[in-house]
Amino acid sequence: MATTEWISTVIASLALLASVAAVLIARLQSKAAKRTASVQNLMTLLHFLYDRDLSKHRKTVRSDLGEKKHAEWTEEDRRAAHSVCSSYDFAGLLVKGGLVPEGLFLESWGESVCDLYEILTPYLQSMHAESQSGHEYWSSYSWLYTRAIGRSG
Known about the structure:
By secondary structure, the protein is mostly helical. It has helices spanning 3-49, 52-65, 75-96, 102-130, 139-152. The longest helix has 47 residues, at 3-49. The radius of gyration is 25 Å and the shape is rod-shaped. It starts with a helix and ends with a helix.
């Protein structure tokens, strides 16, 4: 092998190694960017869930509605129930879509998702019956509940 051929082979090999390294670095950067975006989405969701009114509505559901029959709920009770169902449905959409890490979210919110879902079951059923979309109404909350139950059991 002549010196020129040998140098050409070495240069081609180095170029190939540089290309492979560039692809690997790009993949690592892409994964890091996705993780960063996922954590940012989680932080945004948590900020949303910690809203004062939403926290008040979760407290109302947890402390007041579990003891009342669904037929006795006031308009304020229904407003609180609607707010909680909508917020957890939104959370379920983000988790199901892979925009928020399921494990991290359910680790801190799974118990609340389950407890409130079980209290709100009569309300959810009535909304499913009244809605033209049936069981699709707040289906992401139901999905999130199923995922949370699966983790706890």
